[in-house]
Hints:
With about 230 residues, the chain is mainly alpha-helical. Helix 1 packs antiparallel against helix 2 and helix 2 runs antiparallel to helix 4. About 45% of the residues lie in helices and about 10% in strands.
Amino acid sequence: MLIHNEPEKGFESNRDEAYKTIWLFAMRHFPDMIGIAPRKEKGRPAPLIKEPNPWLWYQLASLAHKLGFQSPQTNKILASNPNLISARKFLSEYCRSSQVRLDQMETDGICEQFAAILGNVKQEERTQEIPIRFTTIESGEDVSRRSGRPFEKAQVSDKLLLSLPTLDKLEFVEKNEGITSLFVKCDFFSSFFRDSSYFKRAGGPVFELFLENDTSDCSICNARTVDK
């Protein structure tokens, strides 16, 4: 059961905003959390499927706790040490590939030292602002790329921009403008949570998604603009 309590100081927000913040975290980091890779780009190797990153799960649980959410799952994650989990995983793989055998005491000692080192590593801070672009003078994100899991290039380019401040900047799009993958994600997110339509608010055309049946590919998501 997920319980929402009072958020920590500095993380005050209404429950809807808090819930969206957690969703956006998952959208940014899903390839490193659930063992599902972004979709393959044409002409490029398939993205590697990564094992769940314990540190990202710890960050998600910590964020949820700060925003006032609590559950048995988040409590269990917060009681763990993600650095120690990563250290044990690394040492286990090293021993297996190098055919090294260590007793439990040696293993525990090495893992604790390695975990302590990881705990002192500082994350790199982003110093340069990334421009937010919802439209392009080119054709924009192809219709075939607007549904399902994000493609690899779109996931990489949009990852750091998926946030509530970005959603607040979502703007009206003219019929003759190409839309970017970032716009597609933000518009999907807003529609999913039934926020006020940015198109209707601007008094312009509504962006309509519809499905066309296709026996070879289950369904293909297309887009068109229609008048209000």
